Amino acid sequence: MIVLDGIDQIHNIPHAIVTSGTFDGVHIGHQKILKKIVKAAQKAGGKSVVLTFWPHPRFVLFPDDTSLKLLTTFEEKAAILEEVGIDYLVKIAFTPAFSQLSSQEFIQDVLVDRIGTRKLIIGYDHKFGKNREGSFEYLKEHSQLFNFDVEEIPRQDIDDVGVSSTKIRKALLEGNVHLAHEYMGRPYEITGTVVSGKKIGSEIGFPTANIRLGAHYKVIPKDGVYAIKVRLDGQEKDAMLNIGFRPTVEGVHRVIEAHIFDFQQDIYDQEITVSFIQYMRGEQKFDSLTRLQEQLKIDKKESLAVLR
């Protein structure tokens, strides 16, 4: 897959079959549209093209609103789109100036002049241009003027999948990582850097990798203990993870800490990726470190049973 960073890098893609959107999470509903794009491009002997906007439009239009959390970074999204089989990913910088572009300007400047779109395939509720004024009806009405075909994925086709990015966020915030997995077609992941902690885990035989997220806008699942897989230096390992405030040791800040099973290496400052497999239990306050240690032994046994 070729990634084009900005519309200035686009130069007439051969027989371009195009779709556009934020595609946060690239869930199975998105994948239905994307696979249709890939199939149509292959049939026409052309190239499949995804236009996506970064940063997320809400971050630009409502900079003081930090409530929106995303399921995927741009890099994660790109990797998934490549797996789906997309030929070109166009990263359009969403800026205040770009947000003022009318739907007609967007179509003419980007879809026609830059890409040379032959066919545009969009979901039933997709809108574009200033104030989301552009719609499927608008595109159909002006299709002869712009000289490309337009196809809408019917509402029923998308609704039958029953998935949305909002539903996935809700599942994660409830700790239902299994449902999120079903909706996304893969485990939910976060990536960060291993940083130094208070080393209390090491004192009780459960050393942890404290993870500082690389993207502050990522959804963090519900506080509690999870069975997870971690990727580190290209290798996947079994582990368990705690998200929360560590009430037993009177923690103040919310932390994300992973205990990698049968692993002793120093991995400070290294990048680590966590795949959430199953929620095991809520975060608890124990009477002593000994009691916490006993529970961690149970957590490890039960997590290994899930993972293996």
Explain what this protein looks like in three dimensions.
The strands form two sheets. This protein has a six-stranded parallel β-sheet. A six-stranded antiparallel β-barrel has the order 7-8-11-10-9-12. Strand 2, helix 1 (28-44) and strand 3 form a beta-alpha-beta unit. 35% of the residues lie in helices and 27% in strands. The protein folds into two domains: 2-163, HUPs (Rossmann fold, 3-Layer(aba) Sandwich), CATH 3.40.50.620; 188-307, Elongation Factor Tu (Ef-tu), domain 3 (Beta Barrel), CATH 2.40.30. By secondary structure, the chain is of the alpha/beta class. The chain has helices at 28-44, 57-61, 74-84, 96-99, 103-115, 136-141, 143-146, 155-161, 165-173, 177-184, 200-203, 289-307, and strands at residues 2-5, 16-20, 47-54, 88-93, 117-123, 149-153, 189-195, 209-213, 224-232, 235-244, 255-260, 271-281.
Layout of secondary structure:
Blueprint: E1 2-5, E2 16-20, H1 28-44, E3 47-54, H2 57-61, H3 74-84, E4 88-93, H4 96-99, H5 103-115, E5 117-123, H6 136-141, H7 143-146, E6 149-153, H8 155-161, H9 165-173, H10 177-184, E7 189-195, H11 200-203, E8 209-213, E9 224-232, E10 235-244, E11 255-260, E12 271-281, H12 289-307
Parallel strand pairs: 1-4, 2-3, 2-5, 3-4, 5-6
Antiparallel strand pairs: 7-8, 7-12, 8-11, 9-10, 9-12, 10-11
Helix pairs in contact: 9-10
